[in-house]
Each structure stands twice: as C-alpha cells, then as structure tokens.
Specification:
By secondary structure, the protein is of the alpha/beta class. The protein is built from 7 helices and 9 strands; from the N terminus they run βαβββββαβααββααα. The radius of gyration is 16 Å and the shape is globular. This is DJ-1/PfpI family protein.
C-alpha cells in the first residue's frame, strides 16, 4: 500500500498537481502488478479550503494523521498562503518523512518553505528560479545544490517549478513504479506534445 497525502491550503495552484493526483487516484494506467495507492487530502485543520481555481476542498484528514513510514508520499502544492504559520507543522512533518525514507514532492511556492526550513541546504533541488528562492527565503543556503530545470529528484525529495507540473508528475510516477516504462513514456509524450500517435501508443501499452 502506498499512502499519498495531498496537502491542501487556501489559494492552492490546482494545475500544478492535477496530472499526478488524477493518475494516482484513478489508477487508470497502472501496471497490473502495481501496489495499491490510497490518495487523501490533508489540511492543517478539517476546515474547507478554496483553491486558486475557486474549488472548495474539505480535507480528509489533518497533518497529525499522516502515517510516517517509507511507503508514504507527501505532495506539497504551490499556493500564495504558505507563509501562514499554521502550515509550520506540515513542514516539520515533511522533514520527518524525508528522514524516514518517505517521498516528499514540492512544487512552486511549497519549495520556498522547504528552502527556509533548511531542507535544501544539502539536497539537489529546483524551484521557480534561483533568484526567486534567494529573494523570498532569507535562510536559504542551498545555492550550490540548485538545478535550473523544471523538475528534479534527489533520492526521496522531488521538487519542481510552477511550469513543471507534467514533469513533476512523471518523476513521481517513475519513482513509485506504478506505470510500466512504456506506458509512462507514451503518457508523458502525449501530454507534452499533444500528438495523437502517443495517445494510441499509450493505449497499446495497457
């Protein structure tokens, strides 16, 4: 069982995690021998949040209910409200999860709070730009580990820029090994190019 926790907060950037949450929750392209995946939304409380796209989401659980083991995946989406102190516990949980071998995947604004917490000081990472991190994160010391790419993985830490949602998803799906190699390649190529030949190739891999 793979437990995926999608942290939700006001102004969440819907598009940044849409690819990965849709695939992990539906399992529509999973290979037959894939582990079962459970996807739950997590909040600082169970109060409803409103995404940037105007959708209301009621969290399934709160951060203190997250299972901390190596099969856990924590998704941290971009949002304009990460500076609110009520999100400090989820960043502490993210550090705890990384230490126990669980996967933490952060995109856009979520990378700033990890940077500020020192998570990037000795881990390869990316964000919207190096200048962006240096500007908004006074405590950031990971400049030598920064990579100017849309998404990157360093062991169990995955980070991405706001423009890297598709590559972010591909990197997570590859790490979890829920798609066959051929399926993941066709899936990525279809959504990256829009060429119908990749969609038919995707179907043929199933």
């Amino acid at each position: 069982m793979i437990n995926v926790y999608n942290y939700v907060l006001d102004s969440l950037s819907d598009w940044e995690i849409g690819y990965v949450t849709a695939e992990l929750n539906s399992g529509q392209y999973f290979k037959k021998q894939s582990d079962h995946v459970s996807v739950k939304t997590v909040g600082s409380t169970k109060d409803p949040i409103i995404t940037k796209g105007g959708m209301t989401v009621i969290p399934d659980i709160t951060f203190d209910e997250i299972i901390s083991d190596s099969s856990t995946v924590l998704l941290l989406p971009g949002a304009d409200t990460w500076t609110d102190t009520k999100h400090i516990p989820i960043i502490e949980k993210a550090t705890e999860l990384l230490d126990c071998g669980a996967m933490v995947a952060a995109i856009c604004g979520a990378t700033t709070v990890l940077a500020e917490a020192g998570v990037f000081d000795k881990r390869i990472h990316t964000s919207n730009s190096l200048e962006y991190l240096k500007m908004v994160c006074p405590s950031y010391k990971g400049e030598s580990y920064y990579r100017d790419v849309k998404a990157v993985a360093d062991s169990n830490l995955i980070t991405a820029s706001s423009a890297g949602g598709l590559l972010f998803a591909q990197t997570i799906l590859k790490k979890l090994d829920v798609f066959s190699e051929n399926t993941l390649e066709a899936w990525y190529n279809y959504f990256n190019t829009g060429d119908a030949k990749y969609f038919y190739a995707l179907l043929q891999t199933l």
